[in-house]
Every structure is written in C-alpha cells, then in structure tokens.
Q: What sequence folds into this?
C-alpha cells in the first residue's frame, strides 16, 4: 500500500484518491476494505465522473466478493440519464461483468461490444489500458459462449495493449487467459508456453496468489502429459504458497485440482480427503459457484464407489445439479454427462435393455440444454452422442449427418481437440462393414461396437490429453472425366508399389461419384463435381484427407466449371495441398 502512503492527497481530488485506493484494494483482493470505502461514500450525491468511478469500483468490489445481486442493485441506482461518455462506458462495462456472472451471455456480449464504441473518447495513454480491459472481457465472454477462435483473438489483442503499459499485472492475466484458451483447444504445448510467460510476470511483480496459480497450471499441464508425479509436485508447491495468500478463495482452486485429479485416477480415498477439507471451509459456502463445484465433486466421489446406494446418491446429485438454476453451464452439462456415463455402465453390466430408452432420453436432454445455453462445444458433443445412438439403431446416414454437424461446430469455433476426436469417429464409421447392420446382436453389444460408452466416458474427463495422430500418407490423386478418360494421374509413390491398388481404383471410378472405400490399409475417397470424378488414395486418418479433397474442389471449382484445365498447374496444386 506504499503508493497510497506516498501519494500527496492535496494534488488530487478526494474522489480520485478513493478511486485509486479502491482499485489497489481490489487488485490485492482486499474486498472487505474496498467495500468499507464504498459504503462510506455511497450516500454522497453522485454528480461528477470521479464519483461515478468510485461507485463503479465499489460495485466491482461487491461483484468480486460474490455479492452479485447487491452489485446489480447498486448499478441500477447510478445508471442515470445524461451521464458523460466516460461514465456511460464504465456503466456498460460493469453491466457486461454482471450479466456474465448471471449467465446472461447474450446481454453481456451486447454491452461489452457497445463499450468498444466509446474507446475513442479516451486519451491515448488511458486508451491502451482500457482497450486491454475491454478486449479481455470480450475474450472472456466468447470463452464462456464457446467461441474459442474469437476468444483467442480477443485475448491476444488484450496482450498487445497491455504490453504497452508499465503495469504488468494485467499482462500477466492476459497471458493466463491465452494459455487457458490453448488448453481448451487441445494445443497443450502452446498453452504451456503462455503459462511460463504468466509465471515469469507473476514472479517479476511478486504476486503470491498468481505464483500459486501458476503452479496449479503447470500441474494441469503435467496431468495432460501423463506425468502424475510432476503434477503432484506442482500442486504441493501451489498449496504451500497459497496457504500464505491473503485470499482464502485461492485455496479452493488447489483443493479442487486435487479432487479432480484423484477422481480421474479413481483414487476415492484421496479425493474424499480433499473434498472434506473443502467442505469444512465456511467461507466457501458463501459462494454459489463454489458450492456448486463442491456438490459436483461429492457426486464424482460417490460415483467411484461400487456400493449401489452410493452410486444412486451420485445419480441424485447429478440430476439435482442439472435441474437447478444454471450457475456454471460446464458443470451442469458435466453432471448430465456423468449421469449418462453411469447409465451406460449399468446397462452393460446388468444387460437391462430398458435402460437404453433412458440413455436416449438423457442424450435428448443434453442436446436441449446445450441449445438453451447456446454453447457451441456442448452442442457439438450432443451431436456426437446422437450420432452414436443413430449408429446403434442402424441409421448410418443419420450417424454421418450428426458427425458432420458436430465436426463443423468444433472446427468453426476453434475446438481443435474435439474436432480431432470427432474426425476419428468418422474414420471408425467408414470402417464399419454392412455386417454391423445385419448382425443379430444385443443392444449392449451394439453400444460397445458403436463406442458410445468410450466416447461418453472420454467426455467426463475435463482435462485435455495429448493426442498422437497417425500420419496420413498420400498414395495418389486422380481426376476422371465421366464417360471419357483420366485427365490427371498423380502418384506420390512408385507405381509398382501400388499397381494393384491403382488398377482396382480404375475399375471402380466409373461407378462411384461419392463414396469411401477401404482396401486393407488403404482408403479411396471418390467425389464428383460437374462432369468430373475426383479420387484420392491414402493410408491413415480419413476425415482430414476428405477435407483436403473438399478444399481442392472448392478452391478450383471455376476451373472445372469452365473446362479450362492446365495439367501442369494442377500437378503443382495437388502437391501443395496433399503433401
């Protein structure tokens, strides 16, 4: 607090001094002290911009200390007509903050986008800092909505602004947000790079709370890499540091990390140990957000038991969370997914086919919830589950249709890891033979064969894992003019190595305009456009190859529409796209 002791209060107004003091107290997470100042000055007539700023700081302190309803009430009092542009800017910003906490993301986005229009009213020095704050909030809301591509761009814009100001605290937070987005997208190594940047700044400014958080993040990275020993070492270091922190809420995050890890490892005893620590903290019970997480963890721990009553308790908890008011859409969705996981386990173990109708109903609820929340990755996951139900019911076309919808959402909104997982299901779908449709097998066996059980269980684990992809090896690319001849035959391998494969393809291409065929370890994709059939032969993952073929056709559709084909140019293009 030296900045306040050394400041000559006679050189600035009392309103500005209180504004700066509350800003420093909020930064240090001393919310109760900030609130005392706010309560003291609240009855002052709010006539000028400096007083409005103090009120805004007070409202933000209320929000930060989880008094969202009170913050909302006070905001309505100062939101008066005929305010100056700067006051309107800050009021709209705080509206965005409060609407985010209330789960009204549509209005949160509307108000933060509106604040961008007011940035031009700020002077140059002020504009750099405030622009960073606005784009940070814009990133956060898009993060919640599930638009990771826009969130990542917004956070990186915030980084650019914060790099231009001397206060490193906000740069540290921006680095952390970028890291989290990369983690959600499944780019673990890029996330790690930004976590290292975050930790470096935290140590530079000696922010104990953020140094502790950085150890948690490094622990999460280690879990994603499969290094549990290193993860626990980082968690222990975080716990040691955060016990010295002035903010008791910091401890929630480290204990929550322990619980999630031990539940993932199916270590019920250790998960229960840290759950009991969380449950014994009266301060945590003041936050609806933290209470929700504690209840969810209780469900996870009950789920780990083989005891019938405990598993029933877990289902009751997940059902209750799903029905309650949505505080965190991710937790509400995860509660339903864990309930679904348990239903599938019960059906496989008991062979009670009546449970299948419950499974279908629950997946429908997941879809309805995802659309209600308008969160893209949740919708994509619901479509992924629906594709498996369609497959179980022998509706191959519908299964493919739902997979395409899921993949499109994952790709459009930047969920790279989810897109990879869905792509793998395309390959699996294309590998299933027609015997799958005609086999007289039980629903339980179809669930296993469809991989619904493994897909759902995979989605109960929130930490992204490092995914090792098989390499796609291109074999050949061919263009055939219907009822005429081949106009392009491009081989990536020596002909004698794949002679039989090429001969087979040439007998098939006049008959197929859109299909995927597998011969041993090789795949052939056929697609037509106008008077032409395109065929790509490869080994390895299929959907990425399918997408490359689509990209080629879409990029050069004019050439084939006008029949203005230059073979040498095509060969160069094929090499660039497929290698």
A:
């Amino acid at each position: 607090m030296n900045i306040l002791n050394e400041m000559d209060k006679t050189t600035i107004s009392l309103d500005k001094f209180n504004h700066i003091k509350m800003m420093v107290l909020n930064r240090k997470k001393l919310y109760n002290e900030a609130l005392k100042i706010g309560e003291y000055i609240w009855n002052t007539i709010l006539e000028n911009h400096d007083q409005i700023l103090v009120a805004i700081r007070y409202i933000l302190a209320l929000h930060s200390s989880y008094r969202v309803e009170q913050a909302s009430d006070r905001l309505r009092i100062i939101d008066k007509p005929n305010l100056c542009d700067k006051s309107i800017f800050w009021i709209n910003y705080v509206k965005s903050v409060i609407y985010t906490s209330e789960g009204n993301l549509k209005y949160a986005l509307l108000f933060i986008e509106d604040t961008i229009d007011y940035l031009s009213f700020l002077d140059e020095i002020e504009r750099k800092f405030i622009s960073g704050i606005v784009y940070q909030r814009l990133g956060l809301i898009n993060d919640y909505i599930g638009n990771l591509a826009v969130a990542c761009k917004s956070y990186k814009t915030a980084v650019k602004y914060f790099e231009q100001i001397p206060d490193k605290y906000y740069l540290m937070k921006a680095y952390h947000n970028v890291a989290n987005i990369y983690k959600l997208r499944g780019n673990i190594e890029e996330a790690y790079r930004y976590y290292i940047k975050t930790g470096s700044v935290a140590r530079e400014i000696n922010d104990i709370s953020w140094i502790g958080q950085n150890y948690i993040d490094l622990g999460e990275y280690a879990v994603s890499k499969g290094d549990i020993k290193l993860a626990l070492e980082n968690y222990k270091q975080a716990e040691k540091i955060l016990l010295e922190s002035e903010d008791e809420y910091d401890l929630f995050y480290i204990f929550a990390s322990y619980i999630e890890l031990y539940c993932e490892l199916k270590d019920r005893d250790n998960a229960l140990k840290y759950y009991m620590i969380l449950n014994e903290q009266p301060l945590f019970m003041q936050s609806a957000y933290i209470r929700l997480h504690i209840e969810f963890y209780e469900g996870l721990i009950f789920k780990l038991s083989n005891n019938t009553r405990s598993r029933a308790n877990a289902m009751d908890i997940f059902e209750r969370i799903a029905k309650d008011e949505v505080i965190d859409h991710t937790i509400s969705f995860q509660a339903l997914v864990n309930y679904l996981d348990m239903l599938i386990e019960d059906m496989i173990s008991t062979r009670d086919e009546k449970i299948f109708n419950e499974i279908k109903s629950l997946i429908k609820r997941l879809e309805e919830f995802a659309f209600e929340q308008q969160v893209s990755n949740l919708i994509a996951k619901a479509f992924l589950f629906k594709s498996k139900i369609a497959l179980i019911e022998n509706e191959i076309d519908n299964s493919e249709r739902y997979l395409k919808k899921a993949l499109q959402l994952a790709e459009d909104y930047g969920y790279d890891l989810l897109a990879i997982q869905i792509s793998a299901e395309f390959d699996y779908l294309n590998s299933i033979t027609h015997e799958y449709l005609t086999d007289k097998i039980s629903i339980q066996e179809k669930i296993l064969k469809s991989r619904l059980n493994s897909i759902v269980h995979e989605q109960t684990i929130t930490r992204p894992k490092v995914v090792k992809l098989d390499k796609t090896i291109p074999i050949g690319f061919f263009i055939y003019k219907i009822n005429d001849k081949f106009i392009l035959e491009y081989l990536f391998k020596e002909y004698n190595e794949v002679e039989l494969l090429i001969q087979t393809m040439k007998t098939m291409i006049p008959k197929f305009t859109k299909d995927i065929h597998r011969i041993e370890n090789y795949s052939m994709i056929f697609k037509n456009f106008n008077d032409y059939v395109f065929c790509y032969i490869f080994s390895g993952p299929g959907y990425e190859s399918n997408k490359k073929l689509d990209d080629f056709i879409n990029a050069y559709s004019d050439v084939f529409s006008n029949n203005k084909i230059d073979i040498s140019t095509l060969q160069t293009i094929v090499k660039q796209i497929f290698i």
Summary: The longest strand covers residues 473-481. DSSP finds 29 helices and five strands in the chain. The beta strands are 473-481, 486-491, 514-519, 522-529, 532-539.
